[in-house]
Amino acid sequence: MSEIKELTNKIKKFQDERDWRQFHNHKDVALSLVLEAAELLEHFQWKSPQEVDQHAKECKDEIADELADVAIYLFEFADNLGIDLSSAIEQKIVKNGIEYPIEKSKGRHTKHNKL
Amino acid sequence: MSEIKELTNKIKKFQDERDWRQFHNHKDVALSLVLEAAELLEHFQWKSPQEVDQHAKECKDEIADELADVAIYLFEFADNLGIDLSSAIEQKIVKNGIEYPIEKSKGRHTKHNKL
Amino acid sequence: MSEIKELTNKIKKFQDERDWRQFHNHKDVALSLVLEAAELLEHFQWKSPQEVDQHAKECKDEIADELADVAIYLFEFADNLGIDLSSAIEQKIVKNGIEYPIEKSKGRHTKHNKL
Amino acid sequence: MSEIKELTNKIKKFQDERDWRQFHNHKDVALSLVLEAAELLEHFQWKSPQEVDQHAKECKDEIADELADVAIYLFEFADNLGIDLSSAIEQKIVKNGIEYPIEKSKGRHTKHNKL
What we know:
Chain A is mostly helical. The first copy, chain A, has helices at about 5-15, 25-40, 50-60, 60-80, 85-100, 100-105.
């Protein structure tokens, strides 16, 4: 079994043991993904580039927990919709390559619609 | 090589071909993760439960793209910090099990600090 | 003096007494606005429509605090950029009226680019 | 009538003309507030401090529109809950003063629970 599928199974088992599927409609899971991503971002609020790097080193475990929270909702969401996340990522990288051709986007952070 | 590691390598290769590492400090990557999660959530704005389900079916490909965008920043972020995302998820599930014991949390969506 | 201007002055006075202007660049203030809006949204996570209404009544004071946090960053941000928020709102309502003509949008939550 | 009340009345009139009250439950309005704040934040994604300042000057009108979008949902939300936003802000400034005493927080961006 694939790594992501195996992790997803553990996530779903955890939820089913708690009978939480009734709450996990797509809207609330997407909303929860935003909230967890915001908790990650809060780690860097008001911090200078130097403070950001130092904080990332000092609080690596807390940050790993926040990343895991994001991953848990992400893997669940993909599974709820019957989306193969691994294929979705591979396909998106191809699409991004078309939107951001190397010669146009190299060394620039300009968005594709303004390239 | 693990599935997540392999996907992460493709993500990093894409960025390095475009010389984007200079922009991808932790703060901006975390911020981007929030923005992509918000784009996913926008799919469900103002929609009733029935509309949410129908939309998820009809727009599965667009939603898969949004999930991929979240995953791309998530995998990159973990790699930038030297975090093994797979272990982080497994450890977080264990922690969540302590915060949400089955007997207390079954069939309830109450947050752990109010259980 | 206008109500918003008067509130903005109190917000700026609070910050200047703490010498916080050095941290309040546009990026971090916008980021903070997102974080505060996310804290507001968290109040409604996993809740059914009935629970949402009941919670809003029971926790009105906490929610008022979250709204104030959003307002504080919003008013500060507008002031930092020399934007008259009151005029900006009036002008946006006019623009919204063009994007959402009554005859097309009445009783529908469809986004303007799909109307 | 107060400035905020007057603006709120225009916002509610706009919505009522379109019969949108049926969609504007607290959860969706809070969710929309997050989405609009994220659109504001997107203006500053990947930008260096110098680029942030320059962009804020060059795109002042677009940013004013984003701020107005945030304000529109904020004023509506407060009104839907019967919250006087002006008083809420004044009270929150007092609370913040207790959490962030000048002598402890001057020149520091440390969060109150770590001061």
